[in-house]
Amino acid sequence: MFAEVADPWEAARQSTLRVARSRERKRAAGAGRKPKLVLYDRLLLTLVHLRHQLPHEVLAELFGVDRSTVSAAIRQVRPLLAARGFAVPDRPGVRLRTLADVSAYAEAEAVELRLDGAETQVRRPQTGRPGRRAFISGKRKQNTIRTTTFSDGHGRMLLSGVVRPGRMHDQTAVRTEGIAEQFRLHPSVKSQVDAGYAGLAKEFPGQVTVPPNPRFSSASRHAACGRSRHRPRAPAPTGPARPAGPEQGGS
What we know:
Blueprint: H1 2-21, H2 39-52, H3 56-63, H4 67-84, E1 86-88, E2 91-96, H5 99-109, E3 113-121, E4 144-151, E5 157-165, H6 170-176, H7 179-185, E6 191-193, H8 198-203, E7 208-209, H9 218-230
Parallel strand pairs: 3-6, 6-7
Antiparallel strand pairs: 1-2, 3-4, 4-5
Helix pairs in contact: 1-4, 2-4, 3-4
């Protein structure tokens, strides 16, 4: 894997540096500030994040760097892994690179998909940057990014979708990423989604389902109402008797 992503990584890195300095380099290769994480560490860090969904703060402690360094490494390596493709469980040599590939694989193998949106806190964008407020999540009230992830019934990842700003709702991503269109093109594909994709379940009732949340089921609500109804009331606070004034008949 390292050998496959090394050349695309170096090409993307040199292109970014060339755009930043707006000219060709003048110093020899190897000069300048040394990176805190080499490519091998960045690749390993990104794989750990994708496999275990560890927060960036935890990865920063494990690798001894700042959280911003971790976020930058994941942001740079993930496109390289996506272009390489996601391995299919029990199918050596088969890789899924697009949402259409995942839909076709699920239809051919009768795999029930799991669709979820992962949200990760990121560093606050610079002041004056266009679209800065788009990263403020309405749910967490922090600067985040969201990623749509597809997995099979055993929790094995099949595809990690396009990264989007945290302010964009999951239902909006359904339209912008073409998820609804894939369900329309592949009517036999079934999937389970979380509550954020409830609108998708209403649009495709026979294909998409939202697992019931036991905390909000009718039985749990009925039990909670019963407990509150039969809970004994606290006695009213009593204090010293006030002396009767003239308006109350006192002398």
